[in-house]
Amino acid sequence: MTKETDKSPAGEKPEVDAYSGVDTTGHEWDGIKELDNPLPRWWLWIFYATIAWAVVYMIFMPALPAPPGFDGHTRGLRNHSERANVTEALAELQASRGPMFARLQQAAADGGIEAIERDPELLNFALAAGESAFGDNCATCHGAGAQGFIGYPNLNDDVWIWDGTFEGIQYTLHKGIRWEQNPDTRFSQMPAYGQDGLLSREEIAAVADHVMTLAGMIEPTEAGRTVGTEIFNQQCSTCHGADGTGDRTIGAPNLVDRDWLYGSEPENIRASIYRGPYGVMPAWEERLDEEVITALAAYVFLLGGGEREAFTEAALDPAISGGADTDGAAGR
Amino acid sequence: MELIKNRPAPKAKAADGVAVHDAEPVNSPERRELYHKREPIYPKLVHGKFRSAKWIFMILALGVYYLLPFVRWDRGPGAPDQAVLVDFANARFYFFFIELWPQEVFYITGLLILAALLLFLVTALFGRVWCGYACPQTVWTDLFIAVERLFEGDRNKRMRLDKQPWSFDKAWRKISKHAVWLVIAAATGGAWILYFHDAFAVLENFFTGQAALTSYLFFAILTFTTYTLAGTMREQVCTYMCPWPRIQAGLTDQQSLNVMYRVDRGEPRGAHKKGESWEGRGDCIDCKACVAACPMGIDIREGAQLECIGCALCIDACDEIMVKVNRPKGLIAYDTDLNIERRMKGEKTQFNLLRPRVILYAALIAAVSGLMLFGLINRSELELNSYRDRNPNFVTLSDGTVRNGYTLTVLNKAGEPRTLDVSLQTDPMMRMRVIGATEAAPTRLAVPADTTQDFRIFLSLPPEAVDRASEDVTFVVTDPATGETARTEAVFITGEGGR
Ligand code: SF4
Ligand code: SF4
Q1: Highest mean pLDDT (candidates A254-263, B363-372, B450-459)
Q2: Residue B371 predicted with pLDDT over 80
Q3: How far is the CA of B279 from the centre of ligand 1 (A)?
Q4: Which positions ≥6 away from B497 have C-beta within 8 Å?
Q5: Phi, psi of A310 (to 5 degrees)
Q6: Running DSSP on this structure, what letter comes out for residue A198?
Q7: DSSP H helix total and E strand total for chain A
Q8: Inter-chain contact B398–A123, Cβ cutoff 8 Å?
Q9: Residues B293, B32: contact at Cβ < 8 Å?
Q10: Consecutive H or E run containing A230
């Protein structure tokens, strides 16, 4: 049981603790009396010092809001501004990175990704700068390791809806995908066959069956063979090709490579046809420096899925580069 | 102990030519209160073999501390030539012929373990000799007390000075003392920063205002702590702040040699008149010279106490007295609990250094130092680590090829750049690609001197070989010039068989 009893009414002398000789406060809990010890001196000193410090701080630093009717706050004798400091620090950072970024830019302009790869120092710089820029800007959609999510492409593999060369990636970064504010953006559009009432649900299911048959995912179905094939040839083959292999120049995905941006379950495929996917990526030239975009493009390219341009691909030793995979059989 | 009770009242004179010191132990039971203000302690200067040992040790310790940063050690061009250097900027630690990388901090752990074991060993043998002689707190406090004595005189003079009202004489003595203390404190803080950069350069930069801000900061912090801990707090640090007394007392046993008052010989104590016989009484004349000499302000005659740092100055103090009253030295001496008991029972004393715990500590010390020495001698100059990409764990390419990405970290601890060859030990179908390698030399890794370098590597398994969830791989780097190799194991994940 805890009970507080105040035994020292005003005016009465406080009881003195026999052992320590210290006054008691009159508070008692379960027979334990509270001693009226002073605060430790070191504690008090620190307390006074903080008060003194606060006064000095107010004189030198921005501290007090302006009285009503006035704008802003007191400036303090030091005229300190955190915003100015940040601006200055950023400028300093920019300047310190400048030479390396200039070298990167030069190499990319002269010899593309090969030139960057040939210079170990530049390569490491581009990878590091690209990785950090990626983490800040791209990871939200594409994932920290660029592994992608449903609707957001995996950048590690060799499947590219648009162009996977170094220059192609640079272009996409600059202009964005379906970023309507940018006139040069990469643009393609698939009709929303269901939403816009162009096809019935049954017809959509039939086309989906046909597409999955093309990709070798299911055995042909009756509806797919008849209705599905007919609709595909009329509506879809213009962009995706009669065999479904797509067309990179217009951003029409390959439908037979088993890489499905919007999921590979039958209902995913039907949903894509129903609503016509419309993925958007911003044009980063509006926000990022040219050099950062170069580093980003190098980083993404070197995640391993970047496509060599035709002429360099041919120049590679067949022992190092095998087939479609740019990974070479090397160093056995 | 029975003998200590019922002590007679103190007298002004303990024996012929020996005055009783007006010294009360600060920790006597009657005066030990909870909220006790610090009582100033005025240790009296003593002379004797332990005092001399402390002076010598102080000179050695301070000499090493102040001069070590200036000792040079040639490590070849490009490498720092300071014998002892903690190079934070480049993440290296140099200690004469030893150079440690961050990956090798376990040697520091080893050193700390070794230090702890050594401390256990000497404590088991000789009690708190670390506290009494080697602890920096003791060394600097001793030095500060010596300075205090220089300006304010010995114990009695100092006590009188403190009671006096302020005067010019008192003021200049106090001011000079604090000034010299500050100089020593600044030199202490100043020497500390010399261990972290080239000492000569730091010294020059420091005085021209060019040194790093951290240098000034640590200089200020260490100056402040040295001044307060050794100048104004002194024994308070040992008694209240330091955890070591609590631990160290637990490391001694009945057979450890400790600073002890030989109660069997000293009691019953009391003043001794000239010509009086020593028969039937103890050798302690209750002069309190031992209390006056104690820098911790305690009375060793009360037995082993937490506050006692084992500095043995009370031994010197009492020995001086014993010579004066013509009794054998060693009323206070290094002795063991067991021997005092034995003597009281009339048994023979014996010193037993080789006790199980001593042997155990010695064996552990030998084992740890042997292990570290082995490691240092066989330290390789080439090391390899690998980190597999986890996000994504693996990539399936359009043709069904499965690919994993790795970062290979090569540590070249040699003083010259190297060109290494990387190879694989695994399924022969596995293909490797090194990002940045040229077509002509697809497996070449160039690592500059004395650096850690990362390389991106892709391994891929063609679709026809993807038939299991994972595959063990071993990366091997070889220096074709020296034949030196390093290897690291890794795993290749395919995602086959569910994940
Ligand atoms: S032990 Fe020695 S120094 Fe201490 S009071 Fe006794 S005689 Fe004096
Ligand atoms: S009692 Fe003796 S050994 Fe212990 S601290 Fe005091 S002088 Fe030193």
Answers
A1: B363-372
A2: yes
A3: 18
A4: B468, B469
A5: -50, -45
A6: S
A7: 12, 2
A8: no
A9: no
A10: helix A229-231
A216 touching B (Cβ < 8 Å): no
Q: How confident is the model at residue B180 (pLDDT cuts 50, 70, 90)?
A: very high
The reply to whether residue B403 touches residue A304, judged by beta carbons under 8 angstroms, is yes
Decide: B53 and B320 in contact? Cβ < 8 Å: no
Instruction: Show the tokens assigned to B224.
Output: 């402040």
pLDDT in tens, B185-225: 999 989 999 999 999 998 999 998 888 888 899 999 999 99
Name the amino acid, one letter, at A140.
T
Q: To 5 degrees, how large is the angle CA A230–CA A233–CA A236?
A: 120
Q: What angle do CA B362, B367, B373 make, to 5 degrees?
A: 120
- Work out the pLDDT band at B69, boundaries 50, 70, 90: very high
Please say whether the beta carbons of B35 and B152 come within 8 A: no
3-state secondary structure (DSSP) of residue A34? strand
Nearest protein CA to atom 2 of ligand 2, as residue: B314
- How far away, in angstroms, is B48 Cα from ligand 2 center? 14
Distance of CA A99 to the CA centre of its chain: 26
Residues B84 and B196: beta-carbon distance below 8 Å: no
**Residue A285 gets which letter from DSSP?**
G
CA distance linking residue B480 with residue B338, whole number of Å? 67
Tokens of A38: 């002073």
- Cβ <8 Å between B405 and A159: no
The predicted complex's ipTM stands at 0.72
Chain A: closest CA distance from residue B244 (Å): 24
Is A147 in the B-facing interface, judged by CB distances under 8 Å?
A: yes
Q: Is the dihedral of CA A146, A179, A265, A255 positive or negative?
A: negative
Strand pairing report for B470-478 and B485-493 = antiparallel
* Residues 6 or more apart whose Cβ sits within 8 Å of residue B158: B42, B148, B149, B152
pTM above 0.95, yes or no: no
More confident residue, B223 or B450: B223
DSSP code at position A288: S
Q: How far B374 CA lies from chain A's nearest CA (Å)?
A: 35
Which of A264, A303, A316 has the most B C-beta neighbours within 10 Å, making it the best mutation to test the interface with B?
A: A303
Q: Among B476, B401, B475, B473, which Cα is nearest to A304's?
A: B401
**In Å, how far is B180's CA from the nearest CA of chain A?**
25
Residue B319: nearest ligand to its CA? Answer: 1
Written as six digits, the tokens of A261 are: 């941006």
SS3 readout for chain B: CHHHCCCCCCCCEEECCEECCCCCCCCCHHHCCCCCCCCCCCCCCCCCHHHHHHHHHHHHHHHHHHHHHHCECCCCCCCCCECEEEECCCCEEEECCEEECHHHCHHHHHHHHHHHHHHHHHHHHHCCHHHHHHCHHHHHHHHHHHHHHHHHCCHHHHHHHHHCCCCHHHHHHHHHHHHHHHHHHHHHHHHHHCCCCCHHHHHHHHHHCCCCHHHHHHHHHHHHHHHHHHHHHCHHHHHHHCCHHHHHHHHCCCCCCEEEECHHHHCCCCCCCCCCCCCCCCCCCCCCHHHHHCCCCCCHHHCCCCCCCCCCHHHHHHHHHHHHCCCCCCCEEEECHHHHHHHHCCCCCCCCCCCHHHHHHHHHHHHHHHHHHHHHHCCCCEEEEEEECCCCCCEECCCCCEEEEEEEEEEECCCCCEEEEEEEECCCCCEEEECCCCCCCCCEEEECCCEEEEEEEEEEECHHHCCCCEEEEEEEEECCCCCCEEEEEEEEECCCCCC
**What proportion of chain A, given as a percentage, has pLDDT over 90?**
56
Question: Measuring CA to CA, which residue among A105, A42, A28 is closest to residue B228?
Answer: A42
Point out the residue among A20, A317, A327 whose CB comes nearest to the CB of B33: A20
> How far apart are alpha carbons B114 and B109 in whole angstroms?
8
A123 shares contact with chain B (CB less than 8 Å): yes
